[in-house]
Structures are given as C-alpha cells and as structure tokens.
C-alpha cells in the first residue's frame, strides 16, 4: 500500500485526535485495505471481514500511531495481523462446527483454486511459525507480506540490519519446510 502524502497527513491529524481526519482517512484507505486482505485470504467474504476488522483496529488504535514510520507501514502491519486473525478465527469456527471432529483444513482441490489453496497453506505455515518462533514471524510478515525493505524491517523491529536479514532467511526456510515438497 503506497499511500500519498495527503493520507499520511490525515493519519497524523487523526492520531492527534481529529475525528474528521479519521473519518476521511478510513474512507481513503478502505479500498487498499480490502485489496491487501484479498491477497492474503482466498475468499472475498473473508477478505471483507478482515478489511472491516482492520478499519476498526485503525480507528481504535490510531492514537498509537506515533509517526516515527510512515502510516502506510503501520497500516500494512495492522492489515496483515487482522487478516491472519480472521483466518485463525475461521479455522476455530470450522473446528467448533465439526462437533469435536478434527477437520482436515488442507485446501480441497476440487473446491478451491490452486492459488487460494496455496494461500491457505501459507497461512497455516505462518501460524505455525508464529506459534514456534514469533520473532521470525514478525520479520517475515514485514518483509514478505507488507513488502518493506530490509532496513525498514530492521527499523520497525529495533534490531540490526543483519539480524533482520537472518530472521527473514530463517523464517523463509521454516515456512518452506512447513509447506513441503509441493511448493519447493
């Protein structure tokens, strides 16, 4: 999400408590947020749910935006986190609806496109990485999902550039191993 300077200014004003700026900011970023969620979640309804959750999270937490980084960077992180939370929630609901049976949450090739199935598998791998090694997951989300450059990842995490690169490399290896031979 590359947002223009007007959007960045609206974010700073909203963070300072300007409610009008917040309303305008949410209106301006909504299409980008939905597009970003749709890249992560294969079904439109799920992407819309994550998009609404993201906009709500922005509205609730805008005062936490300190302006040290660009608003677009902060928004990327919030969006990726909300999309992953939506996915976890959908998995939990599916498990609860199955009446105690453990459902096979792998993508069914008869019902899901190859791209959508790959996204679901990636979200599963990311969830496992986050549970196992959250430091690596943060770095990977910032680099590969939010598409920040390495120095921005290091800055966001408050770590040296070499450490950021190492974490991203380790995270990619972990995810690749979790995805297995089908994605190698």
TrEMBL record:
* Superkingdom field: Bacteria
Annotated RNA polymerase sigma factor 70 region 4 type domain residues: 133-173
* Record-linked Pfam families: Sigma70_r2 (PF04542), Sigma70_r4_2 (PF08281)
Name a biological process GO annotation. Answer: DNA-templated transcription initiation
In terms of SUPFAM superfamilies, this protein maps to: Sigma2 domain of RNA polymerase sigma factors, Sigma3 and sigma4 domains of RNA polymerase sigma factors
Alphabetized GO MF terms: DNA binding; sigma factor activity
UniProt keyword terms in alphabetical order:
Sigma factor, Transcription, Transcription regulation
> Any idea where the RNA polymerase sigma-70 region domain is?
25-93
PANTHER family attached to this UniProt entry: RNA POLYMERASE ECF-TYPE SIGMA FACTO, RNA POLYMERASE SIGMA FACTOR RFAY-RELATED
Family membership noted in the UniProt record: Belongs to the sigma-70 factor family. ECF subfamily.
NCBIfam families xref list: sigma70-ECF (TIGR02937)
The protein, known as: RNA polymerase sigma24 factor
Organism expressing this protein natively = Sphaerisporangium rufum
């Amino acid at each position: 999400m590359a947002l223009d300077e007007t959007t960045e200014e609206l974010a700073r004003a909203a963070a300072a408590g300007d409610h009008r700026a917040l309303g305008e900011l949410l209106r301006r970023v909504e299409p980008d947020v939905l597009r970003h969620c749709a890249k992560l979640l294969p079904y439109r309804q799920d992407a819309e749910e994550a998009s609404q959750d993201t906009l709500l999270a922005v509205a609730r937490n805008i005062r936490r935006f300190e302006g040290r980084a660009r608003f677009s960077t902060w928004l990327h992180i919030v969006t990726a986190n909300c999309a992953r939370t939506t996915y976890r929630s959908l998995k939990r609901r599916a498990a609860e609806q199955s009446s105690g049976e453990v459902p096979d949450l792998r993508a069914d090739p008869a019902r899901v496109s190859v791209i959508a199935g790959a996204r679901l598998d990636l979200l599963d791998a990311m969830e496992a990485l986050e549970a196992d090694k959250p430091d690596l997951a943060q770095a990977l989300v910032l680099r590969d999902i939010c598409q920040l450059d390495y120095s921005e990842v290091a800055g966001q995490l408050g770590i040296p550039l070499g450490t950021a690169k190492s974490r991203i490399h380790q995270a990619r290896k972990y995810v690749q191993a979790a995805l297995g031979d089908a994605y190698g």
